[in-house]
Design brief:
- This protein has about 140 residues and is of the alpha/beta class.
- About 40% of the residues lie in helices and about 20% in strands.
- The chain is built from 5 helices and 5 strands; from the N terminus they run βαβαβαβαβα.
- The chain has a 5-stranded parallel sheet with strand order 3-2-1-4-5, with helices on both faces.
- It is globular.
Length: about 140
C-alpha cells in the first residue's frame, strides 16, 4: 500500500504524520512530498525513505497513491499561502486514493462543525484512521 503525505510551508504537520504512520504501519510504502524544499527536508527528519519536492512530485505521487494525507488545504487551489497550485489540488482531488484531510483552520479555510483540537490530537486521529484503512484493504 502506498501512503503519500503532502505538506508545505515548514513541513511540521507532515513530519508528525509521517512519524506516526511509520510507527503504526512500518511495512507500508510511505512517500512524503513537500511543496517546497524546507517542507521536504523537515519531513525527511521523520525517517521516511522516499521524499520529493514540488508540483510535479505531488501530481505523480497522487496518481498511484492508495492513501493521501495532509492538511485540508491540499485540495484547495492557492491555499497554504499559494503553495498548493491548482494542479496539485486537482491531482489530489482526482486521485482514486482515499484522502485523509486534517482540518487545520488556517489560511482562510475553516471547517465548520469541527471542534478545535491540538495538532497532536489531529495527527493521532489521522494516523489511526490510516491504519484502519490499511487493515481493511489488507483483508
Amino acid at each position: 500500500m502506498k501512503i503519500v503525505v503532502i505538506d508545505g510551508q515548514g513541513g511540521g504537520l507532515g513530519r508528525q504524520v509521517a512519524e506516526k504512520i511509520l510507527e503504526l504501519l512500518p511495512k507500508h510504502e510511505l512517500v512524503c512530498v513537500g511543496t517546497n524544499a524546507l517542507a521536504t527536508a523537515n519531513m525527511l527528519k521523520s525517517g521516511v525513505k522516499l521524499a520529493a519536492t514540488g508540483e510535479n512530485a505531488a501530481a505523480c505521487a497522487a496518481a498511484d497513491a492508495d492513501i493521501i494525507v495532509g492538511p485540508i488545504g491540499i485540495v484547495i487551489a492557492d491555499s497554504m499561502l499559494g503553495e498548493i497550485t491548482p494542479r496539485i489540488a486537482l491531482c489530489v482531488g482526482r486521485s482514486s486514493a482515499v484522502r485523509v484531510l486534517i482540518p487545520v483552520n488556517h489560511c482562510s479555510n475553516i471547517v465548520a462543525g469541527v471542534p478545535s483540537a491540538p495538532l497532536s490530537t489531529l495527527v493521532s486521529d489521522a494516523a489511526q484512521r490510516i491504519a484502519e484503512i490499511a487493515e481493511k484493504q489488507a483483508v
